Amino acid sequence: MPTLDTFLRRMRIQGVPGGPGPAGVPVDRRSEVALELGPVLDLLDEAEGRAEALVGAARAVAEQRRARAGEEAAALITSARDRAAAERARATAGALDRADRDCRAVLDAARAESARVESVAAARVPAVAERVVAAVLATGQAGR
After folding, report:
1. Which of 48, 50, 47, 70 is nearest to 62 (CA)?
2. CA–CA dist 92, 23 (Å, integer)
3. Could you tell me the pLDDT band of residue 18, with boundaries at 50, 70 and 90?
4. CA torsion, points 61, 63, 64, 67, in degrees to nearest 10?
5. Cys-Cys with 21: which of 10, 15, 41, 46 at CB 3.0–4.6 Å?
6. Is 7 part of a structural domain of the chain?
7. If we measure between CA atoms, which residue out of 26, 1, 32, 29 comes closest to residue 12?
8. Could you tell me if 46 and 38 are in contact, meaning their C-beta atoms sit under 8 angstroms apart?
9. Residue 104 to residues 87, 92, 98, 99, 110, Cα–Cα distance (Å)
């Protein structure tokens, strides 16, 4: 429904007083604009609807990809933890093997040194025992 202002504008004088002017009621510019732009704006509404649908679909795809990436990340983390435990076990076994080799090397060196000391002792004991016996015998003869 037209407002009073719109109605009165239709009745205003078209020209300055004087010579004859065009007859009739002036054209309603607002309705002309609405008639001219209405189809274009309707097309824009359709385009906006399609754009919203595309954005919604893209958001759904993005959410699916995020979920899939989260699952893949969780699987990678689980796999890495499993591999880390295996690597720790392997590294520990290697360290224990090295420690065993080092221990055996030290024991072998100790056995060799012990054998050398026993050999030296075995070579020296008869001479030392002979001197001790001689010293004891000499003490016994000195007391007579």
Report:
1. 70
2. 106
3. low
4. 160
5. 15
6. no
7. 26
8. no
9. 25, 18, 10, 9, 10
Question: Is 10:25 a contact under the CB 8 Å cutoff?
Answer: yes
Helix boundaries (H) for the chain: 4-10, 29-142
* 43 domain-assigned: yes
pLDDT (tens digit per residue) in 26-41: 566 777 777 888 888 8
pTM equals 0.40
User: What is the number of structural domains in the chain?
Assistant: 1
Question: Per residue in 98-118, pLDDT tens?
Answer: 999 999 999 999 999 999 999
Domain that holds residue 121: 27-130
Give the burial string for 78-90 (b: 16+ CB within 10 Å, else e): eeeeeeeeeeeee
Residue 28 · residue 10 · CB < 8 Å: yes
